[in-house]
Each structure stands twice: as C-alpha cells, then as structure tokens.
Amino acid sequence: MNQDRTFEILTAEPVRKRRKPKLWSEEAKSLILEQALAPGANVSAVARAHGMDPSQLFGWRRAALASGSVRRLKVTRDNEAFTRFEAVRTDSVEIWVGDTTLRVSASIDPALLSGIVRAMRQA
C-alpha cells in the first residue's frame, strides 16, 4: 500500500462583507436624474460623481423614461431636449416653457393654466 498520493492545498481569502445598499432620498434621486438627463450629459460620469455604480443610474433613467415621469421632447437641430414631470408633494407646480419657469398652485383651474401657457409660448 505504498502508493503515491497527491494532495492539492487550496488557499482562499476571506470574502469581503457585502456592502449595504445606500438608500437614496427622492430629492437626491431627482437631482441625480436631472443631471443624467441633461442634454449631452455623460451618465457614467454623473453616477461616479455621486459615488454610485453607473448601471444603477442607467436603471433609474430607464425606469423613469418607462414610467412617464420623464419624457423625451422633439429633437432640435443641435441636441435632444428633455423635460421632467414628477409628482411632488407640494402645493405648487413648476412648468418649463423654453427657458422660462412658470410656478403655479397645484389647484389652478386647467383652463386658466392652458391659457397662461399659450400666452407664454407666443411671447
């Protein structure tokens, strides 16, 4: 029974503990998405600037576009423009028409609001 025996010794390093996922506030998500959706923005660079994995931000962006909270507008000559719609728990609403911001009460009469927006577009 004098047989040669071969043994392989395996060495392993301890597995790092898994990072606890960071919980992002709605305000922080909104700010990061706004930066990522800006025309010409580099989504990966925005993600790294906020200390997150780019794939997470791409997922947020994809979910926002699919949910309708973000909508692509017509392509302009030089760039693609975006507008952001989101449910906000306040009594005021912000509407961007071109480079002008309109802030109105959430309880405004829709007919009055559409008249104001038409007037802003014609100005």
Q: Can you describe this structure?
A:
This protein has 123 residues and is α+β, with helices and mostly antiparallel strands. It has two domains: 24-85, Arc Repressor Mutant, subunit A (Orthogonal Bundle); 88-123, no CATH class. Helix content is 37%, strand content 19%. It has helices at residues 26-36, 43-49, 54-67, 110-122, and strands at residues 70-75, 80-84, 92-97, 100-105. The strands form two sheets. Strands 1-2 form a two-stranded antiparallel sheet. Strands 3-4 form a two-stranded antiparallel ribbon. Strand 3 and strand 4 form a beta hairpin. Helix 2 (43-49) crosses helix 3 (54-67). The longest helix has 14 residues, at 54-67. It is rod-shaped, with a radius of gyration of 25 Å.
Note the beta-strand portion: 15-25%
Low-confidence region ranges:
none
The CATH architecture of the largest domain comes to Orthogonal Bundle
Structural class: alpha+beta
Instruction: Kindly give the count of domains.
Output: 2
Helix content: 25-40%
Order of helices and strands: HHHEEEEH
Ends distance: 100 Å
The first-level CATH class of the largest domain is given as Mainly Alpha
Strand order of the biggest β-sheet:
1-2
Largest sheet: 2 strands, antiparallel
Rg, nearest Å: 25 Å
The averaged pLDDT comes out at 77
Number of strands: 4
Shape: rod-shaped
CATH third-tier fold name of the largest domain = Arc Repressor Mutant, subunit A
* Number of discrete helical segments: 4
